[in-house]
Amino acid sequence: MRPLSTSRSFTSHPQIPVSSSNKSNEPRSRSEELATRPQLVLDIGGVLAANFSPKFWMLVSEAAEVEHSTLYKIYKQEISSKLWRGELREEQFWGWLQEQAPKLSLSEAKHMLAGCLSPLPALQRLPEWSRAADLHILSNHLLSWVTPLLQPVRSYLTHIVISSEQRWKKPQRELFAHAASLLPSQSNVLFVDDKRGNLDMAETMGWEVVLADEGGAWIEEADRWIHNNSARDVPIFDSAKPR
Residue 230: which pLDDT band, with cuts at 50, 70 and 90? Predict the structure, then answer.
């Protein structure tokens, strides 16, 4: 399989025909067709997969016999922003962690991290959503950490924007502007994230937003939004049907 990359189009999932108010028999351009499809932009942590914090740091501190609050405080102050902006390479992160928790082996730490990035129910909805909307990823993460998660669904994703590959992190406006530049102009956009600050920045881009809750109630909101913004010939999702 081809390696996962960022800010590029993957093999497109077959798209269903879209209706148009244009009565002309002339074929529409590709850009016009895409503009009729809603654009769903999704975070990863707390949306498609579990956040690795705080569970990862609790596991590390317990296994390495170090104080959890102290370790996490150092991570947030010295490492977090640099890691998400790509200023710190992955191997440097692991080297730092081994210095902080010398009793923890590198292989054990990596196994813990992989276990913490477990998929959430919304990941299974991507094939269905892609029938009616273009799907995009916008996440503060490392590409190598999320590749195993996204690889099985990459054909349903139009663009993947990972902060460490762009040298900006949410909620920096530059990262949102980069993501917006990849979307069809004048399209309806919904952004889903579990951090209010990120949603606030998305709203300044003219996007609609939904806060991802731990219970996953936001999934029904996304269903309804996609249905309401899709062409009339798109089959309605069960959770979007009137009750």
Answer: confident
Show the CA angle centred on residue 186, arms to residues 180 and 192, nearest 5°: 50
* Same domain (yes/no): 95, 207: no
pLDDT tens by residue, 130-180: 999 999 999 999 999 999 999 999 999 999 999 999 999 999 999 999 999
Q: Taking a C-beta distance cutoff of 8 angstroms, is the pair 162, 138 a contact? A: no
> What's the CA gap between 138 and 158, in Å, rounded?
11
- Of 73, 101, 116, the residue at which a domain comes to its end is 116
- Asked whether residue 211 is domain-assigned, the answer is yes
Question: Are 104 and 63 contacting, i.e. CB atoms less than 8 angstroms apart?
Answer: yes
- Please give the Cα distance from 44 to 147 (Å, whole number): 11
Tokens linked to 72: 């996490």
pTM of the model: 0.82
Only one residue has tokens 């010398």, namely 102
Neighbouring-strand partners of residue 190: 40, 208
User: Which of 76, 93, 116 corresponds to the end of one domain?
Assistant: 116
Stated as kind and residue range, the H or E segment containing 29 is none
pLDDT digits (tens, 9 = 90+) for 22-36: 333 334 344 444 457
